[in-house]
Design goal:
With about 150 residues, the chain is α/β, with parallel strands linked by helices. It has two domains: about 80 residues, 3-Layer(aba) Sandwich (Rossmann fold), CATH 3.40.50.720; about 55 residues, no CATH class. The chain is built from seven helices and five strands; from the N terminus they run E-H-E-H-H-H-H-E-H-E-E-H. The two termini are about 15 Å apart. About 25% of the residues are buried.
Length: about 150
């Protein structure tokens, strides 16, 4: 049975940082994620929203280019959401390898995609001396009540 020095619950920005840091100092680390690597930041928040805002800024710049003496074209820019969303997805895809299972496995972290299965989480927690839970960028170290899990 594997023993872990650290179990990280959640593969969001905080959890990934803690898992990589633990592995870097030689800890045996397990990372448990119930949905997608990268958490809200990569999949729904920071990365997609920044890409969408960038596309909006470019559209605005094109519309107002004449203010600066620049002729950006004689026809008005079309607002077609499909290519904008393709750009947003491509921005996410460019960042995703940094948060991937493959990268963290390469760092020495045991990644468990448990889809919220409590039996997987409990089995892993039974093999650990400490845990870190992260949620929306806030991480906190918590003493592990191992005796409660037996």
């Amino acid at each position: 049975m594997e023993r872990y020095d650290l179990i990280v619950l959640g593969a969001g920005s905080g959890g990934l940082t803690v898992a990589a840091g633990g592995a870097a100092v030689g800890a045996r680390v397990a990372l448990l994620e119930k949905h997608r690597m990268g958490g809200d930041c990569l999949n729904y928040g920071c990365v997609p929203s920044k890409a969408f805002l960038r596309a909006a800024k470019v559209a605005h710049t094109l519309r107002t280019a004449s203010t600066y003496g620049i002729n950006a074209g004689t026809t008005a820019a079309r607002h077609d959401l499909k290519p904008v969303m393709e750009y947003v997805r491509s921005a996410r895809a460019r960042v995703a390898p940094h948060d991937s299972v493959e990268r963290f496995t390469g760092l020495g972290v045991d990644v468990h995609l448990c889809a919220g299965r409590s039996s997987t989480v409990i089995a892993c927690l039974r093999r650990c001396s400490s845990s870190v839970a992260g949620r929306l960028g806030r991480s906190s170290a918590r003493p592990l009540p191992v005796s409660d899990l037996r």
